Amino acid sequence: MGVLMSRRQTVERVQKVSLAVSAFKDGLREQPSTRRRAEAGTSRQGTLEQEVQEGEEEASAGPSQPEESSASKAAWERLRDGRGVEPEEFDRANRFTPPAFIRPKRELHDDEPPDISLEQREQILNDEMCEICEVWTAESLFPCRICHRVYHDGCLRRMGYLQKDSTVEVTETAHTETGWSCYYCDNLNLLLTEEEMYSLMETLKNCKIIPGTCLTLDDFLHYKHLVHKQQFERPMAEAQEEQAALQFNALDPDKKGHIEWQDFLSHESIQLLQKLRPQNALLRLLTPKERERARAAFLALDQDNDGFIGEGECRQVRHTWFRKHQKELLSCNVSISHVGPISEGSPASSRNGKSPEKILPATKQEEASIDWPSFLRENVAYILAARPNSAALHLQPPA
């Protein structure tokens, strides 16, 4: 009993300190002039000549141009820093301060093949305390399906990461096989290093893409044509344009006629990772949960336990599980460790009279066989692309 009381007192003390810090930060945010000076000192890293040039451009643009320039500059800074929600976009009353994201750095050994064993299973352990408030409250914590972090829904709301219907999505899916990705894992752009991010920003600027805007099919195809011509110095072929149109449709699952900015940014981020990093470096980005899901998918197909599956089976996995989770087929009673393809005879496959896409077995004598390391290398980009909570397919598998 003494231990329990001590833990409760500790929790209460942490909560009081957290509220005090939050109130102090809210007070600081009420001083706009101080905040602007602080942001100007930390976020603007250009030379004096650049600042003078920007000032002259704004002065010559007329009275309405400075506001547009300021909004555009804030959008580019938001993109650079990996912030998905700007404080001005929602009510900041009683909210926590969003974290400062630190972009990863490439290591010398990143390009070497990692040792990911098929036989040796990994133990999946989630954190015990909320990532935001660092308070333990047992069953009310919601785990991320990608990483080890857990969260309170109330803390996520105060951070501004849960709005409108997203609260229901978290509470209904976080403890299911479908799972929910936290704000770190949901944003594929945070996988880019600073150098890679600046490369992407230069491409977007050259193609006249404004951060935060939605893209229609014409906008998307025009962008793809420009990028292809800049990279290869020749026009895009008709087959490549058709593939780009298929990718647009995959990014617009609700058929709204446009794709959201965050979905476009995630697609471009995973495309850039494929372009600049070898597959071994991408394999090092996988978390233990993702590696366990990949093992479950491979072992479900390797029914004769010889360590090989057919090439057609590998492609079928890419078109089913690795593209997105099948939310309508999952139950809260399913273990979080069971994340491979659902078999035809399982209870989940017959729910509501629906059955998932079947992975048809093919004889290995009729096609090339793929071992476990090759399976990982060929599917790693699709595993990473399945991280966001959005229903969009951020990397459309080829037909």
Automatic annotation (TrEMBL):
CC per GO annotation: cytoplasm; nucleus
One of the record's GO molecular function terms: calcium ion binding
Keyword Cell membrane: no
UniProt superkingdom: Eukaryota
Biased composition (Polar residues): 62-72
Region (Disordered) location: 24-113
Gene3D superfamilies per the UniProt record, alphabetical: EF-hand, Zinc/RING finger domain, C3HC4 (zinc finger)
Domain EF-hand: residue ranges: 289-324
Compositionally skewed regions (Basic and acidic residues) per UniProt: 26-39, 75-94
Keywords: Metal-binding, Zinc, Zinc-finger
Coiled coil (residue ranges): none
PANTHER family per the UniProt record, alphabetical: PHD FINGER PROTEIN 24, PROTEIN KINASE C-BINDING PROTEIN 1
Protein name: PHF24 protein
Native source organism of the sequence: Calyptomena viridis
Gene (UniProt): Phf24
